[in-house]
Structure formats: C-alpha cells, structure tokens
Amino acid sequence: ACVVIAGYAGLYALVLAALGFVWLRKVMLRRLAGTTGDTAGALLELLEVLLLVGLALIQV
Q1: Where are the domains of the chain?
Q2: What is the pLDDT of residues 7-32, one digit of tens each?
C-alpha cells in the first residue's frame, strides 16, 4: 500500500520507521527494564516524526 500511495519514497520511509521502532524499543527496554503507556505514547510520537522527516528528506 505504501508503494501505491507514495511510491518507493513511502516504502523507504516505512523501512526507516521500522528500524527506528526497533532501535527506540531496545533503548527504552534497556533504560526502563520494561514498557509503560508513557513509553508507548512517546514511541508513537517519535516514530511519526521520524516517518515525516524521512518522507521530507526523500522528496528533496
């Protein structure tokens, strides 16, 4: 669906967001030894920003 809607830029941004998710989750688990609702919300917001920045950089 990402490729149909946004072309390959959408796919690259999705991969960037997935890698960001894995990295941020590992950082949060290591620092807090678990997850909470606050960390889930922060992770969601950070991934949204990462996705939008990735799309902006790819489009330039």
Answers
A1: 2-59
A2: 777 787 788 888 988 998 899 889 98
Name the least confident of 30-34, 37-41, 56-60: 56-60
**CB-neighbour burial class of residue 21 (10 A; exposed 0-12, middle 13-18, buried 19+):** middle
Name the residue with tokens 């902006």: 56
Report the alpha-carbon distance of residue 32 to residue 54 in Å, rounded.
27
- Which DSSP state fits 7? T
Instruction: Tell me the residue type at 55.
Output: L
Q: Is 13 buried (19+), middle (13-18) or exposed (0-12) by CB count in 10 A?
A: buried
